[in-house]
Amino acid sequence: MSAGRVTGSAAGPSLARFGLGTAAVGRPGYITLGRDLDLPADRSVEAMRARTHALLDAAFAAGVRYFDTARSYGRAEEFLGEWLAARPDAAAQVRVGSKWGYTYTAGWRVSGADAHEVKEHSVAVFDRQIKETRALLGPKPDVYLVHSVTPDSPALTDRALHARLAALATEGVRVGLSTSGPAQGDTVRAALEVTVDGRPLFTAVQSTWNVLEPSAGPALAEAHAAGWLVVVKEAMANGRLADRNATGPDTAGLRAVAARSGTSCDAVALAAVAARPWADLVLSGAATPEQLASNLTAAGLALDATDLTRLAALAEPAETYWRTRAALPWS
Ligand SMILES: NC(=O)c1ccc[n+]([C@@H]2O[C@H](COP(=O)([O-])OP(=O)(O)OC[C@H]3O[C@@H](n4cnc5c(N)ncnc54)[C@H](OP(=O)(O)O)[C@@H]3O)[C@@H](O)[C@H]2O)c1
């Protein structure tokens, strides 16, 4: 299946603009804010498998056709692969993006591990993880990203690695990167310059963009203009933009837009991403089917110019945003 691009409508974003990410449910611990409220006390493999499958069922039934996962999300690739195998009808209609470059090291612990994941963007890790990903996802992934690239990553300069990724691209996989940190824009622009045999190597990116941290926007617009698939993650700032957390004076504008549009803060946060013409896909990171349903009310929610101006005022300095994110505990 090709990983083509999608666009929205004048009335508001269509469901085709939304994807589901599996970071919150493929493993017992993660950094989003209300996990004790939203996940079963039993964080066994079976409980998390059941939750992941329930979310995939609900997302597919609602019309979501893009799923995001990674080697490092615990058993998320395994859970998604099982679901795809059990639902060949659905598998034929969805695109799957996964990522390599982080190794899961938490040993199914919720918190307290020395490191929950270890990053290494090397040929050796790529060679190991592409095999593991394919063993779990079958003919997928349609999109394969270097996980969490920053400007100092060897993924931007290692020619041997670039040759490996170019070979994968010739098999029909869209090769790209995800980005993190305050210099996401620099990372995207450096990646736009990478070529193999005179042709651009990367054709997909997944970056953080939300109303608190919009700094990557101009570089993502350039990537979109270059024909890349642009996917947005952390649209809810790891849960900071959910109604129950967006209670302070800093998010008053978000609450005002939710009240004006008769919807929730989470729907506005996702709709604000989908309002960017360069954002091909916006990920929901829902941990429950109820959150997913609420997130997906962003489909069809058209924000007006006044809404967008109000939301633009919420932006934090990128350094401040990423410092706050780095301090979020695993729970
Ligand atoms: N480097 C990378 O490549 C990278 C990094 C991060 C994420 N991602 C991808 O992007 C996806 C989304 O990112 P994310 O999950 O980190 O962040 P997010 O979308 O900013 O936050 C998702 C979290 O917000 C909370 N939430 C959502 N809707 C809610 C509602 N209606 N009410 C209350 N709380 C609500 C939930 O957390 P609680 O239930 O805990 O409150 C949920 O897990 C991930 O699944 C993953 O696929 C990629």
Keywords:
globular, alpha/beta, 331 residues, 13 helices, TIM Barrel, binds NADP nicotinamide-adenine-dinucleotide phosphate, 8-stranded parallel barrel, disordered N terminus, 12 strands, two-stranded antiparallel sheet
Name of the CATH architecture:
Alpha-Beta Barrel
- By helix and strand content, what is the structural category? alpha/beta
CATH superfamily: NADP-dependent oxidoreductase domain
Radius of gyration: 18 Å
CATH topology: TIM Barrel
- Ligand inventory: NADP nicotinamide-adenine-dinucleotide phosphate
Terminal residue distance: 36 Å
User: Secondary-structure element sequence?
Assistant: EHHEHHEEEHEHEHEEEHEHHEHHH
Number of domains: 1
Helix content: 25-40%
CATH class: Alpha Beta
Please tell me the overall pLDDT: 95
Please count the beta strands (DSSP E, at least 2 residues each): 12
Overall geometry: globular
pLDDT under 50 segments (min length 5)? 1-10
Number of helices: 13
Main pleated-sheet profile: 8 strands, parallel, barrel
Beta content comes to 15-25%
What's the arrangement of strands in the largest beta sheet? 1-2-3-6-7-10-11-12
